[in-house]
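REQUEST FORM: STRUCTURE PREDICTION
Request ID: SP-0412
Submitted by: Lab K.M.
Chain count: 1
Length (residues): 151
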Amino acid sequence: MSEPLIKQIIRGIDVSNFDPTPYTDPNVIRPLPKQEEFLLSHNNAQITFYGGSAGSAKTIGLMYDVFQHVHDPNFECIFFRRTTKQLRGAGGLWGKCSSLYKKIGATSKEVEMKITFPSGATARFSHLEHDKDAQDNHQGLEYSAVKLCGL
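STATUS: Completed
RESULT:
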């Protein structure tokens, strides 16, 4: 009987340059290889798609993408999740981003769900459960980047 395909694939992965530091030192911010590939691949793109299965760190890749713009005082990003619970709940996007961006000097306003970087660049967070949410709260606004996380 031949070896299962997944074992063949895993055996063929080169991990000689893998650096475990991001997972052992909480003060190191570093993307996983697929996140890094995504971040480096779309410098001039107006629209990018980054997909994968549940738990594949897509949202963290989008969080890291903001680092490319934190020095631009005119940068205004918004992250959307389907519900506020997904933003604010245990392990939610708001808490993760607040903790991550604080490491580079950003401040957060809990009630507004807004993070401001030292340059003045901002990242906001909102739910987008119904069409009416978009119409009532975001129609006509101009964002530099829109991050749709698991809608």
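NOTES: The beta strands are 76-81, 107-109, 114-116, 122-127, 145-148.
Reviewed by: T.R.
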